[in-house]
Amino acid sequence: MARAVSTKQKLVYTVIGWTVGLLIFFPILWTILTSFKTEGEAIASPPSFVLFDWTLENYAEVQVRSDYFKHVMNSIIISFGSTFIGLLIAIPAAWAMAFSPTKRTKDILMWMLSTKMLPPVGVLVPIYLIYRDGGLLDTQIGLIIVLTMINLPIIVWMLFTYFKDIPSDILEAARMDGASLRKEIIHVLIPMAIPGIASTLLLNVILAWNEAFWTLNLTAADAAPLTAFIASYSSPEGLFWAKLSAASTLAIAPILVLGWFSQKQLVRGLTFGAVK
Amino acid sequence: MGSISLKNVKKEFSGHAVIPNLDLEIGDGEFVVFVGPSGCGKSTLLRLIAGLEDVSGGTISIDGVDVTGEAPAKRGLSMVFQSYALYPHMSVRGNIAFPLKMAGMDKETIKRKVEDAAQVLNLTDYLDRKPRQLSGGQRQRVAIGRAIVREPKAFLFDEPLSNLDAALRVNMRLEISELHQQLRTTMIYVTHDQVEAMTMADRIVVLNGGRIEQVGSPLELYRNPANLFVAGFIGSPRMNLIDGAPAKEHGAATVGIRPEHINLSPDSGEWKGTVGIAEHLGSDTFIYIRAEGIGQLTARANGEIGLKHGDTIYLTPDAGKLHRFSEEGAAL
Fold it and tell me: Residue B9: in which H helix or E strand, if any?
């Protein structure tokens, strides 16, 4: 028998749901509101919520002070580039772990995950020196390499989970039908795992887009993505909250839109396997 | 051509021998059924022949060529899986065309071959549907279609009918047998259902614990089972196996008598018993009898006979049809 939910309970759940949602969203909303204030109003106490002089001057100023579109292009190239290369490496890796496991497969998976537990700052100095000597500092390719390595364990883990749910009979049928390993992956495995691959791609683009530690430490001007663009507004000559907010709003806008349009796919992908 | 030869084939899974040592010759055009209880290694044996598992020892040859180390795709065999294993993202046409596409055939040939196969299997109207829009029987036909288009040296069937309901199973059984008559291609068919084995096979291979218990035509196995295992496995209802004193009278450790070889009489016979349950099937009646000094026996009578629970009945085994087995279970 289905559990009956009374109207009163529904109301309570709805209020709780919205409260939690708004609490999480509030900092973003406040940032967006502040970006439309003057610097004076931005630090006024008590702050005004919507009754202030709305202005676009911060956005104009930000565009004058730094080249927003260059940073957007860097962010796009770095996040999509590292995700695509990650997928190219992870799909065969996850195939091997899901369909041709050995005694050590579980250990390898755990080892890959354990690398995510290492504080990145622990390897900053060696990586910085390698990048400096290899001429990779402040280059897009340098950031793509480091972000691919950072996110590879997550990509492999996610794909492994999706692949495990694909019946191995179907891949064996492809093998019997004369498909080589490459064709088996391209014609059978990937089309069947599209929902999982798509959500892995989206999640990793978002992770790479928001990654701030390596992007701030390994770039200066040429390859700086949006994270560096925001950081450049917390300058030593004083905090400019309104401009910082405008820069932040501009930085999160593209990924917010992408996340909004793909949320259905993301939720489906993240619960794939958990709910059948 | 499609003769298959297994020599000293062994298969171990993490130290445990699933198939200790096995030799088997399968002739070109033969319909061979591997039958046995679950876990007897019949599916593993099929997968070894397919190349989906590597042997731990021994050689597998197809048409005299050693293929032990070859990939499945290079062996020229087709396989039909229990789960159908259709490609869910492709239409029926795409599924049947897949092996031809992998073989690099041109589009015109693929189209013609797919349509021919669809014709044979009554799938012409469903060519543009996805597998999920088909019934179980239709899906199995698509799987068979995918197997026949590439004109393999042999077909391998891994319990292809066990996901179907009883009525459909009988139909598909006939269709597969007819297909074999038409194509005359070697077929190896794995099942745990001895009725399927008896009705379809040219030759049955009875497996138990990774070993071959007996190989022979269905009637050979029925008439002359080599041992107790085969005697008990082949035939439905099962053969009655009697040991102790009644067996000693016949000079054996165990005697076996099939239910259809016991004569029933209301007033005289070799053994006396009481009817437990009578199953009336119309064409036959199966009678489960508690026989004095022997135990539970099953008898089969033609047509309807008016026996009911508690009736006393006399049984006489048909002496010429009595099977005698030694202490070790081998036929005497």
Answer: strand B4-13
Tell me the pTM: 0.81
Chain B nearest CA to A174, separation (Å): 8
- In the prediction, which pLDDT does A274 show? 43
Locate tokens 């008590």: which residue?
Answer: A46
Q: B181-236, pLDDT tens digit by residue?
A: 988 999 999 999 888 999 999 999 999 999 999 999 999 999 999 999 999 999 88
Give A-chain residues touching B146 at CB under 8 angstroms. 173, 177
Confidence of residue A176 (pLDDT cuts 50, 70, 90): very high
pLDDT digit string (tens) for A57-96? 888 888 888 888 889 899 999 999 999 999 999 999 999 9
Residues 6+ apart with CB under 8 A from A216: A227, A228, A231
Domains and CATH numbers, chain B: 4-231 (3.40.50.300), 238-325 (2.40.50.140)
**Within a domain: residue A32?**
no
Contact by Cβ (8 Å): B258, B282? no
CATH number of the domain that residue A118 is part of: 1.10.3720.10
Residue A137 lies in a domain: yes
Encode pLDDT of A201-222 as tens digits.
988 998 999 888 999 889 888 8
Owning domain of residue A223: 66-232
Buried/exposed A61-92: b ≥16 CB within 10 Å, e otherwise: bbeeebebeebbebbebbbbbbbebbbeebbe
The shortest CB-CB distance from B52 to any of A175, A183, A192 is to: A175
Per-residue pLDDT at A231: 84
| A182 lies within 8 A of chain B by CB | no
Counting the structural domains of chain A, the total is 1
CB atoms within 10 A of CB A21: 10
Is A255 domain-assigned? Answer: no
| A103 belongs to a structural domain | yes
Q: What is the ipTM of this complex?
A: 0.85
Q: What is the DSSP track for B18-83?
A: EEEEEEEEE-TT-EEEEE-STTSSHHHHHHHHHTSS--SEEEEEETTEE-TTS-GGGGTEEEE-TT
Contact across the interface for B52 and A177, Cβ inside 8 Å: no
Q: Which of B83, B98, B150 sits opposite A169 (nearest CB)?
A: B83
Structure tokens that stand for B259 in this block: 């239910």
Confidence band, pLDDT 50/70/90 cuts, at residue A273: very low
